[in-house]
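Section 3.1 - Work completed
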Amino acid sequence: DRTGGSGAPAPGTLRLMRITLLAVGALRGPGFRAACDEYLARLRRYAEVTEREVKEAGRVKDVASRQAAEADRLWKAVPDGAVVVALTRDGTGWSSTDLAGRIDRWRVDARPVVLMIGGSTGLAASLIGRASARWSLGPLTLPHELARGVVVEQLYRGFTILRGEPYHKGR
């Protein structure tokens, strides 16, 4: 469990938006961890970000049972009242500016946001159905470790778009 800062805002300041990256399995390999940590550090200037990992159901052989076991672990880690976003290939693709708009709405709603990333078999359909939104990073099959890095970078990009900072060069 990795958390950013003390979690408590300084006196007289606004509470930062709370975002939880909830993922099945640990990031393997120093490259994935380093890339993710780089963007988490940047992102923590704008939001209180927590990264939670639940254990993979590696010993379960059939996909449906594996996904169900992982879905149970994931759902138990969701804070009450959170906006849950499931990362799934069958979700809606958002441009970086679309994501920035969503971040702004989530911030105004003042509810914690949870972005769920499945393991090697993806998220269970039952879990996807319970999500507030379904976000697709595109039709490609990505390793879940790489998907996590892309999500963190895109969150950072979304905040820089909202702040009018020069990081985002797109239209």
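Second construct:
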Amino acid sequence: MNLAKTDHSPAEAAPASMGTTVQEPLLAEFIGARAPIYLTHYRRTTGADKSAAAPNCGRPSHAVSWHWAAFVLTIPWLFYRKMYLGGIVLVILPVLFDQIAPGSLFFGSGLMIAICTGLYAKSWYVAHALGKIGEATQRFSIADQRMAYIRHAGGVSIPGAVFGALTQGVTISLALRDLLHL
């Protein structure tokens, strides 16, 4: 469904009787091709997939749900999904830990960050998407402008993934250099 070509509000485009929330069409538009994976997580964490009312009023919880790509390719995945601030923080954080406790970059902090990202990636991404959707709703009263912003802010970034891969490669090479005392 392409909401930009309709004059209906998101609430009209996704009635509750269809088992979706008002946010789901906007989330799907923001996420893009992999939307079903994240929408399933969104429904599970908000209670939208249950017949009873959601206990947390449509706000997703930070539930654990494994994400292999985010575990294996932590930094590239964050930049690919346009979560730039998180990517930058997760590049700097292990390097800072390594300055405090030399060798921790290879043995502890990098692996710990990868595991945490693998466990919480879906929740973080859904929260990121909902934040951008909220921002679009506040900034734009015209539906077409709002949808254009959501499409631009969402989706994926191949250049971001390449940058993230290069950054993660440099971080790993620094960790190996420290480990091998080169």
